[in-house]
Amino acid sequence: MDDFINLLPKAELHLHIEGTLQPELLFELAERNKISLPYKSIEEAYEAYKFQDLQSFLNVYYQGSAVLLQEQDFFDLTWAYLQKAKQQNVRHVEIFFDPQSHTNRGLPLEVVMTGISHALKEAERTLDISTGLILSFLRDLSAEAALETFQEAIPFRGLIQAVGLDSAERNNPPSKFVNVFDKARENGLLTVAHAGEEGPPAYIWEAMDLLKVSRLDHCVRCLEDDQLVERLKKEQIPLTVCPISNVKLRGFDTMAQHPLKKMLEKGLCVTVNSDDPAYFGAYVNENYKQASDILHLSQENIYQLAKNSFLASFVSEPQKEKFIKELDDYRTSQKCVNL
Ligand code: ADE
Ligand code: ZN
Q1: Domain 2-338 in CATH: superfamily?
Q2: Is pTM beyond 0.90 here?
């Protein structure tokens, strides 16, 4: 199954670019920008990446992001991820970035946008990976701060496909951000939101009904509400699930307890993603492999997850068809190999 997963064409739809900062690059950028780190060595940084919950992770993640200062830093970060994505046969990626975690440190938004978007263009040109960018608001900051960030981002509107909502979920419901999401949709952007990672099913309803999201990020707590599951199934709203992230942040004690397979069996449009691969020690293929091993997913399940990743992406319908044809051809070739 590992070989089948390695070469499987797939899309990654839930990936925070700041969460791809490997300790090696963290140290390189800290030195480049003369920033002191709370770790003595790369090994000590790896050791520190053990988390009790979402907040304990976010503290380390925002601290790591502080080494990013110049356009070149954002380019290098994004380029390193895209090369990894290429190795894992990711054919299309939609990348989250957290502008407020940088503008709050005094960086101009232009530095962030230019560095990331140049790397995306370079990947389209030389790696044959298609890309999209999602501007994510930090939900533990105010609604006014999100609106200000959105206004600042309007000149870069052409580089962004959607807005999202991330950071500490508890006590920060989607309803807090109705205005800025309304404005984003008026400006022709799609919307997504993290919901039901640590927060209750009520936040998932709010994300759908108030923020009118096209996709839900995580959504693993949906199984606590049967009516919600019915709605997600009926409308086939895509869910970007990140199994290893959920175990690392202690939403579930072990992978064996993760609801991914149940969600698939209930007919939900589930996808598999990595979230913050540098901090969880696992890129997208490791997520497919661990979920597959421990939850006993079939080759057909894996195929469905990859197909869902293309169906759930924000590419055009003809491009979706091309990707799915590539996936179907791959599956046919593998059936021949297995005969
Ligand atoms: N920012 C980066 N990773 C996140 C996650 N898993 N949940 C919420 N916000 C995040
Ligand atoms: Zn996330």
Answers
A1: Metal-dependent hydrolases (3.20.20.140)
A2: yes
